[in-house]
Design goal:
The chain is α+β, with helices and mostly antiparallel strands and 625 residues long.
Length: 625
Amino acid sequence: MKNILLKIALIGSLMMGIVACQSVQTEKSYTAEVNENGVFVDGKPFQILSGEIHYFRVQPAQWRDRLEKLRACGLNCVSVYMPWNLHNPQPNEFNFEGLANVRGFLDICKEMDIKVLLRPAPYICSEWDFGGLPAWLLKDKNIAIRSYDKEYIDAIKNYHKRLFKEISPYYCNNGGPVIAIQLENEYSTYGDDEKYIKFLKQEMLDSGFKGILYMAEGSPIYSFMPLDIEGVWATATTFPILKTEEALKKLNRNKPLMISELWCGQGYRLGVPLDVIRKQNVPNTLAELDGFLARGGHVNLYMFHGGKTYGFFNGALYNPPKRPYTPFVSSYDADTLVNEAGDLTEKYYAYQKIFLKYNPSAIKYTVPPASKKKCYGEVVFTKSAKLSDNFDNMALKTVKSQQLLSMEDMGYYYGMINYKATIPPQVKGEDLTISKIRDRAWVYFNGKFIGMYTCDDPEPSFAIPQEGGELQILVENMGRVNVGVVMADGRKGIEKVLIRTKKHFGWEISSIPFENLSGLKWKPVADENKNSKHTFYKGEFNVDEVADTYINFDNFTRGYVWVNGVNLGRYDCLPPVYTTYIPKEILKKGKNTIEIFELEGAKAFSAKFSKYPIYQRKDKRVIMK
C-alpha cells in the first residue's frame, strides 16, 4: 500500500511539474521585451537584424519576393512605416486595400516567421508627402501638428480606432509577428512636447500591445536631448555608427543599443546627380557594423528595398535660405541592397556576409531569382488633350470665393489648383504681385502667358493694363515638405495677390487633382502640340510577354505618367533618374495604354522602353545594369 501511495505521489509531482513547465512556457510565449539583459522574444535572447521595406511602395504581388530576399540576406526582422495620409485620405475615410493592404503584408511576415518593427505614425518622414500626415489637417490654420493640440490629438484618436482593427491581431501577444512599435519619428529634431509622446504611448498600450515600445531619434543623436519616456526604448537613426553608439550608451544606461535606421542609401532628390547622393564608404560602414553587432548591438537598415513612390506622395526638402525647395523623385530606389525592380546589388552580398555571421541559420534560405526584364521598343503618342480644352472635365470642384483658398481649403490635396479673377480697371497701369507660390505657377493675363515661377523665385510682379482684364494662375503641388519645423506651413496654392498695395478680392478657384482621366476629350496629335504646355498625350503599346520594364521620356520635359490607369508618379528632365520603372504587375498581355501629362512641352511624340534604369552620374548618363 505504501508503495502504491508513493507511486501516486510521484506521478502527482511529475504532473505538477509538467503543468508548471507548461505554465512557464505559456507565460513566455508570444512576448517581446527589452531590459538590462538584452532583447528577448518568447523568453529567448534575440538580436534584431532588420531591413526596411514599405509595403505601400511595392506591388502586393512582389511582397513575398522582397521578404524572401530579406530573409536570405541574414535578416530576421522587417521594419515598416505606415503613412497616415495613405490610410486616412479624407476625414472619416479609410483605405486598407491594394498598396495599403497592411494585413496582407503582415500575413506573409507571420507565415515566413519574420518579426516586424511597426512604425505606424502619426509622422513617418520617409521622403513622403507631409511626412505621412494627412494634408486635410492643414485646413485648420491654427492646428499645431506633432504636439498635444486638441484638434490634432482628436484626429489621431479617430484614425487609431480604425487602425488598431487592422494591426492589433498581429501583435506578438496575440500570436502575431509585431514585436516592436515605434512612437512618432525623430521627434527630438522637431519638438519637445512630452505630453504628446506619452499620449501616443498610452494609445498603443490601450490598444492591447504588450511588446517593445521604442522611439527613433534623429541623427546626430548627440546633438539633441531626446525625451526620456519611461518604458520606451531610445534608439537612433544614423549614418556614423561609432559616435551614435557612444551617445546611445549615455542615453540608454543599462539597456542594449539599437540603430533603428542605419542609412545604407538615401532618397533621390530632384536635380541632384547620383554621385552627390552616394556618399557612403561601404567598407568602413561594414567594419563599424560588424563591430557593433559583435558587441550585442541591434540594427535596422534604411532602406533594404526602397521600391517606388506611386502617385503624388513624394515629399520635399525646404529650409530657406540655406536649402531651396527640393522635391524627392518618384523612384525610391535609394541606392539600397535591393533595387527598385527587386534586383540584388553589390551591397546586398557585402551586407549578407556580415549578417550571416550573427544569424548563420539563415544560410538555408535561397535567394529568389531576379525578375525578367523586357524592352518593348518605342511607344508613339497618337492622341492629345489640352488641359485648357478639358478644364471643366478635369476640375472636380470649382467655387467662388472672396478670399484665396489653398488646396487644403478646397479638400483636394494633390495635382493642381487654378485661380481666376477679373481685375478691374485701374487709375493707371499698376504692378500686380503674387505672394507665396507653392510650388510652381504658370501665370496668364488676358490669355497671354506671363511666365512660370517657383517658390524659390522672387515674388513675380508685372504691369497690368489700365483697362484691367482676366488673370489666371495655375499652380502645381510638387510635394509637401516632409521634415523640419517648416513642414507645418505646408499649404499649397498661393497666399495673396496685390495690385500695388491693394489686396484683390473675388476669385473662381478650381481643384484639378488628376484622380481620373476618363473625362478627357482626345484629339489626334498635331505638330502644333509641340512645346504646348499642360497637354495630355495618349498612346498604346503591345506586350507579347509580361515583364518588368523602364520607360524614358527624353522627348518630353516634365510631368506625370499613368500606365493602364495606374499613376506611376512624376518624370523629369532633371537628374538623377531619367527612367520610370513599370512593374510587370500593372502590365497585361496584348494592348496596354500609357497616358502622360506634360507640363512644359514635347520635342517629339514618342518614348522609348529600356530593360535598365538610366541615371545621371556627374556629367554623363549611365545605364545601371
